[in-house]
Amino acid sequence: MKIAMVGSGYVGLVSGACFADFGHDVVCIDKDPRKIDSLKAGIMPIYEPGLAELVASNVKAGRLSFTTDLAEGIAGAGAIFIAVGTPSRRGDGHADLSFVYAVAEEIGANLRQPAVIVTKSTVPVGTGDEVERILRESGTSVNFAVASNPEFLREGAAIGDFKHPDRIVVGTEDEWARGVMTEVYRPLFLNKSPMLFTSRRSSELIKYAANAFLAVKITFINEMADLCEKVGADVQDVSRGIGMDGRIGAKFLHAGPGYGGSCFPKDTLALLKTAEDHEAPTRIVEAVVKVNDARKRAMGRKVIEALGGMDAARGKKVALLGLTFKPNTDDMRDAPSIAIAQALDDAGVEVAAYDPEGMDQAAPLMAHVAMQPNAYAAIEGADAIVIVTEWDAFRALDLDRVKAIAKAPVLVDLRNVYDPAEVRAKGFTYASVGRP
């Protein structure tokens, strides 16, 4: 089947490359000519492990191509995916659907064959209804259906998630659309991936509900970490103890500096706005958003305390190791490091930093931070070293070398990467999250 993927960002590019790897003929479409030119040259606009190789192999096989021409790209496609951004709208926090609706209008003006229009972007409940209205008012005379197919890709593990999904959710009440979507995902049936067909509105809400629930788990264990520090318990033991309960599960119970990224912050906010609009307030999610925002700044204060307090911290140097919101990505959206670095700068602390992939993205957001070529360059002369993102490169630092080049042997481990006893045995003052 020919598939058109409108939008060549994180979701569109990963999905398009994976569909091509399944054997479909895929055209990725984007308005940005520089992005398309780069993709044609084999240069990826994002960092995702394995993506460059996957794109290159499918381009070479003739199954994957790129264009800025939507009319050309959707010609002959049986499924047309909308995978454009839906950022938080300035001023009110609602999801900005202007890109989705603009694509729907353009598809309607250029559709020449029957096709299923599939919303892959994360959108609020009812967006599919509006997309369908736009298409019908475009005057197209061909048969079409509108379906919802949310993505559940973790940055840093997106290709594996796409090819071995926990579930494939498709929202449509149209039998023909169900058949088309079944054919699109048929290669995954070999892996016995469960395919859940729902109403379109249920599918749209599933994505938001899933992300909100995961955000709740992260925020819950972070609050338990604060309590552990007060009462002398170990949050890692608590996490393991509750995670072994099958009703709870062990994932997303790792204490840290708060969640960030492209999904959780904007999706929890969009869910709140949708709930308010329909007079069904979600108080738990509302609390999660507030607690998570406050936590990031609190981690900055935790570092300042390790420096001896506000007065003692002024003029000192801190090395931040890891800037992206999680490892194996270059995504800086709502990364905890931004708030931490700002809190340190506000306190008069000099900040140096290193991240294996995210410094180009981070630099415009952190003008006051000195980016360094490696971890040890950032550590040199530092009064405290802070692990913000748990990249593998930071899990086995040469602590003897760190102690020799740092001004003071102070390690603040916001991801609980190290064993406290081992680090203290090396002569470090060590602070972590939720551990005595």
Folded structure, characterized:
It is a single chain. The protein has 436 residues and is an alpha/beta fold. The chain has 3 domains: 197 residues, 3-Layer(aba) Sandwich (Rossmann fold); 82 residues, N-(1-d-carboxylethyl)-l-norvaline Dehydrogenase, domain 2 (Orthogonal Bundle), CATH 1.10.1040; 139 residues, Rossmann fold (3-Layer(aba) Sandwich). It is 44% helix and 14% strand. Strand 5, helix 6 and strand 6 form a beta-alpha-beta unit. Helix 1 crosses helix 3 and helix 9 crosses helix 11. 47% of the residues are buried. The model has no long low-confidence stretch (mean pLDDT 96).
State the helix count.
18
Number of strands: 14
Please write the CATH class name of the largest domain.
Answer: Alpha Beta
CATH superfamily of the largest domain: NAD(P)-binding Rossmann-like Domain
What percentage of residues falls in helices of 4 or more residues? 40-55%
Strand line-up across the major sheet: 3-2-1-4-5-6
Mean pLDDT: 96
Shape from CA axes? elongated
Largest sheet: 6 strands, parallel
Low-confidence stretches: none
Distance between the termini: 57 Å
Beta percentage is 5-15%
The structural class is alpha/beta
Q: Mind telling me which CATH architecture of the largest domain this is?
A: 3-Layer(aba) Sandwich
